[in-house]
């Protein structure tokens, strides 16, 4: 028997509506709040909603930016997300109003400016952080350090205070230094859990899969290249010899071409965008792929393995990107590098040198 139409309508309203804008979290300007009622005397506060659908609470910090906006849209489409908080220092009311009209289950709330940071963070299970300035042609990721280090520090101080158990996916560059910065902030606050702090290097894996598929004439969905080390130039180390799905081999020329293109994929986009920013759309795609893996891990799914830049004992460096298994507590296992060929061993030595300096720079930023 069909339920009566009214009950279906009430159920739908209860899933998506009333807690959209609880009074203490309102960010809409007064004229918009008045418009809502449109003279009918009925506004959102009058909706019959009881609460959100089951799922995880996710916040995006830097949600109005080039990465933040498509990332917010894609996370709104993720059925594992029940509540989506969008935080930035500008423009979140507009982005939130826009995205909140998508007819997917996640409830979206916007927060703008430092004074709303704590409300944005409280109760979150997963934080995705693309806040900070991107590169322009001629810049390295390290050139962003001076601005982005301070932004990451402020946001992590808020996280330590409001949601110390949340999983953190850090995208802001230079990732090789911002992850050590975040770790130091959390240590200072006494909340550091290395299993919950992950630098997002997924775009390097996404690029590696795409470029390898192109060279081999394969569907990229069936290619799986581990990319280890870090997230900048020569620290990005694709392990082409371990490209196992399907197993294949490359000529030395192909290895040179692929390694160079994967390491400089970010610069390829920065130059093509000619001053208007760095990768945003492919980054949002990669960030969502990674966040979804973290959420499936939190849900308790088995066998979730992705590459990420994390606190590590795989090498002598305190942070290193390699394959990790994700679970209910964040990182549950970090895998060793596996067999490397001579080309990869040489690349690893070069990567480690640069990586060590970037890690030290991040740690010193907080300690000194
Ligand atoms: N990890 C990766 O693979 C990868 C790939 C591409 C870009 N990135 C990095 O991601 C970052 C963002 O890139 P983008 O293209 O979206 O830049 P963008 O300038 O378009 O957006 C950044 C956003 O951060 C916001 N912001 C600045 N200070 C903030 C603060 N204190 N709190 C909250 N938000 C703040 C800005 O208002 C802006 O909306 C850059 O650092 C970029 O280098 C990383």
Automatic annotation (TrEMBL):
It catalyses: (S)-malate + NAD(+) = oxaloacetate + NADH + H(+). InterPro entries: L-lactate/malate_DH, Lactate/malate_DH_C, Lactate/malate_DH_N, Lactate_DH/Glyco_Ohase_4_C, Malate_DH_AS, Malate_DH_type1, NAD(P)-bd_dom_sf. It comes from the Eukaryota. The keyword NAD applies. Residues 201-365 form the Lactate/malate dehydrogenase C-terminal domain. Substrate binds at residues 135, 141, 173, 207. Homodimer. GO terms for molecular function: L-malate dehydrogenase (NAD+) activity. NAD(+) binds at residues 62-68, 88, 148, 171-173, 283. GO terms for biological process: glyoxylate cycle; malate metabolic process; tricarboxylic acid cycle. GO terms for cellular component: chloroplast; peroxisome. Residues 57-199 form the Lactate/malate dehydrogenase N-terminal domain. Pfam families: Ldh_1_C (PF02866), Ldh_1_N (PF00056). NCBIfam families: MDH_euk_gproteo. CDD domains: MDH_glyoxysomal_mitochondrial (cd01337). It is found in: Peroxisome. Belongs to the LDH/MDH superfamily. MDH type 1 family. Keywords: Glyoxylate bypass, NAD, Oxidoreductase, Peroxisome, Transit peptide, Tricarboxylic acid cycle. The active site is at residue 231. Its EC number is 1.1.1.37. This is Malate dehydrogenase.
